[in-house]
Amino acid sequence: xxxxxxxxxxxxxxxxxxxxxxxxxxxxxxxxxxxxxxxxxxxxxxxxx
Length: 49
Known about the structure:
Oligomer: single chain
Mean pLDDT: 82
Order of helices and strands: HH
């Protein structure tokens, strides 16, 4: 359940940033999503270790 909330919040933030024109292209949005998922995975691993 916690992980679902984390993804929900991340996607909401990405949508908000897209609507505010932070991302000018789909490539920028995809790269930001990859970074979020990669950093989130690293942070999750740190907590569980």
